[in-house]
Amino acid sequence: MDLLSSIIRFRARQSATHLGFLGCQVQAWFLRELGRHNPEHAKQLHTDHDEHSTQKISRPYTVSTLMKGEYPPRILAVGDWCWVRVTTLTEELSELLLNQVLPSLLPINHIGPVELEVESWKEGPPDESLIQSDTYAGLLLQVMASSETRISLDFASPTTFKQKNKKSGIEKDNPLPAPDMVFGSYLNHWLAYSGMEIDKAFGEFVEDYLAVNELHIRSERVQFSSKETQRAATSFVGQVRYAILRNKGKGQFGPIWEHYSNIARMLAAFSFYCGTGHHTTIGMGQTRPLPAQSIRESPSWQ
Q1: What is the model's pLDDT at position 283?
Q2: Backbone dihedral region for residue 275 (phi beyond 0: left; psi -120 to 50: alpha; all else: beta)
Q3: Are residues 167 and 287 in the same domain?
Q4: Of the N and C termini of the chain, which has fewer Cβ atoms inside 10 Å?
């Protein structure tokens, strides 16, 4: 098992109001729980940069913000159900989470200003389909027999991409689901953790053959801190359908069009675990592949 998507359910032990986006607080809780079993691993996951490089590194997990039912709560009353989602992208971390961390969570936890009690799974939100595991090889096998040219994705939590001007060094948010940004995000995580190479020409295939076919999105501003207003991100949420354009037998991808189409479908399936874009370790970019039917017929997480 390389990939794990797990849900932890809580019951509120106190009331709380004016709750904001708690992705950073969920991350802190997750690393604390992980650190009780493997302090060195938790410390490593908390590091933003490789010690030999100034470049930011991706990290092999994602967390959601705190959720109540299908939405992040603005208020909580004593006894309310809520939950968080954690995904892991390496065999080592997935096994550690499944076999050590999850079975022995502290019974009482604090996420931000809220005291929560861990509860066993019962019917109700979230959908149990969010609890899954897989392998990288398994994702590849899933798509090999498919000829579907539509890829529908639900960007269930605020999603954005970070762009940096090479000359000025200025960074800015790009809250648009452009195919190169979306599938480039998945490709980076795949190459970092799967141990399976993908030809660099796949990026050119995305530029030529992947197009936005239908979208239902809205913009959303995420405030990470109530005290530091500059700690924020402009993002989008909603559903997007991409089309893999039909090959006409022309260009460099004529003979291997189906191969690259399989890679696109595989990376879309991988999005369930790796999330999309920037800040996936603090609640953003939670993603779910959808059936290929019209995205307007498909429910959203939030």
Answers
A1: 95
A2: left
A3: yes
A4: N
Residues 45 and 27 in one domain: yes
Q: Are residues 183 and 235 in the same domain?
A: yes
Average confidence (pLDDT) over 189-208: 94
Structure tokens that stand for 297 in this block = 């017929």
Strands 81-88 and 61-63: antiparallel
- Decide if 8 contacts 86 (C-beta within 8 A): yes
- 225 or 265, which is more confident? 265
With residue 264 as reference, give the H or E element that holds it: helix 257-274
Q: Do 149 and 99 lie in a common domain?
A: no
Q: Burial level of 104, CB count in 10 A (0-12/13-18/19+)?
A: exposed
252/278 same-domain check:
yes
159 and 61 assigned to the same domain: no
**Per mean pLDDT, which range of 27-41, 150-164, 239-253 is the poorest?**
239-253
C-beta separation of 92 from 2 below 8 A: no
Maximum Cα–Cα distance across the chain = 63
If one compares 93 and 232, the residue with the highest pLDDT of the two is 93
Angle of helix 202-209 versus helix 179-193 axis, rounded to 10: 160
Q: Which domain holds residue 280?
A: 136-296
Angle in degrees, 0-180, between the axes of helices 257-274 and 179-193, rounded to the nearest 10:
80
Distance CA 238, CA 157 (A): 8
**Residue at which a domain ends, from 132, 165, 191:** 132
Environment class of 286 (CB within 10 Å of its CB; exposed 0-12, middle 13-18, buried 19+): buried
Q: What is the pLDDT at residue 248?
A: 62
CB 34 within 8 A of CB 96: yes
Q: Total domain count for the chain? A: 2
Domain edge (last residue) among 132, 161, 180: 132
For residue 301, pLDDT beyond 90? no
**0.85 cut: is pTM over it?**
yes
Domain-embedded: residue 302: no
